[in-house]
């Protein structure tokens, strides 16, 4: 069938037409050449461009896409300063490439990967040169050609995104070469060809970066399911939904343990805690609970709170998958009018103009006066869902656990607050009972996480370090008080001293020596993570003139060792890297040419997902179980070609065990350090594939320092100083 037989309209609008079903799918089924300039590049736009392409593929057609990078002010400044513009543009494109959120997006990326590999799809990048950088190329034109040479040109406001197709008011105008618009259509074709061949004045066009092609090819599967009518399936789903109403995605099913958790939450009056290990579907279980609650009550204000901005953005992707259109609230939100949106949503909800809305925000913004005032207008028919809920046990955030909120759900793999029983009790009093407890061992056993080998590496203080450790411990012990009820209080000075002592443990000089020995066997490997402490280390391997009195930061010394001594490709992952830089690092780790190692401090702990990490060297760990359990969780995510993970845990002891003197006046101080480290060794070693390898060390420490299991279980308040 030719284009001339399709009965096309001249104008399509989203409010009265299904543009995918009425235009894209039938036209692309007859197309042999599809040329499209799409405007700003994003993963959703790229995925959206596959609408209807299965028909074109069956015709052995060709596709030419021109995309434009979204350059922020830092990118523009970098280009104007003379940085290589291709590198800047590559980074800008990479940060817009997100992981697929469901089966259909996976299949669409699979299709794109096949098309790129077999040469069917070519992509180029258009941008204005540096001296005209303020006027970004953002044209939206499509040109389609059939086997008879007929051409269709369409132009208008619409990008190929789900929001554009179904949520926004968008339109396209259609021109045809067999009608009176023939000359206009041919002019548009000529303009596209000029642009494609980089002959358009004031616009530069380059090839699509190889690193992005490789990133897309990561999603290529062996089989291209051309027999699955994805367009029809997705369109049926989207047509059947009221936008903004919580809805379970078609083709998506919760697992039995997730369904059971939601049912228990319902039985508890829609209050409770989902205690679920990393990688077990905690977010989806929470969203499934939202859907269930709305189905039961038919009316729901949804407030979702996360610790950090990057976690908010991860939630947004999943929230949209469940048919909600969230208001995204934090200081640098891409929704610049989020405050006005939230006020309107609350007003519309209160006067019953709408039955549901969703607001997702950070802990900091949720605590602000603006949001606190908004929350005062909510209560009944409101759900407060808190991710990483252990944070809300702090005195500041406890005040934001409003008693008027009717429905409550806490998500956390580590709800118990180390050394803060009162904070933990506040959380359980407010949110209620655990509705599920899905621990790490079960997650590994059931294939949700990767099994691992665990190797504790013993490091011993030198004489100077041991003397400093004992001196700080003695001073800190003078800052601890116990009242008549047995409650322990540590002064602010005591807390500062304990932090100094912890940094001594984290920065023990022997750790660099042992890391150097181990890394020799890994210098050609990749997908490694080295966890450092926020501490300085005296590095006596360097010339003394290069060391200041306090020493160099551990993370710098480790990076120098890996990069300079062993010639490895490494990068930092710290609070100094921007959100965009971190996203690029994460994506580079999944390419065929990854960094060999990420050297990180604390900011990688909570919520950052880099599944491809295979080997971890943990130089620094706190005594807080929440933190070291999260660090282990970063390494155990499932990934392709990753049958197991390996963890090297650098354990700090005062001296070799055969040199310990139980009659020494310092014995108790050294014993406390050993006990702190022993808790983590037992936690990590217990479920490792090679658990027997750590059993001998555990037994030696227990015998040397006469530490019982009962004693370890009782020491939960973090008060014993030695």
From TrEMBL:
Record domain Helicase ATP-binding: where: 263-433
SUPFAM superfamilies named in the record: P-loop containing nucleoside triphosphate hydrolases, Phospholipase D/nuclease
Keyword Disulfide bond: no
GO molecular function, one term: hydrolase activity
Pfam families assigned to the protein according to its UniProt record, in alphabetical order: Helicase_C, PLDc_2, ResIII
Protein name: Superfamily II DNA or RNA helicase
Domain Helicase C-terminal: 514-679
Keywords: ATP-binding, Helicase, Hydrolase, Nucleotide-binding
UniProt cross-references to InterPro entries, sorted A to Z: ATP-dep_DNA_Helicase, Helicase/UvrB_N, Helicase_ATP-bd, Helicase_C-like, P-loop_NTPase, PLD-like_dom
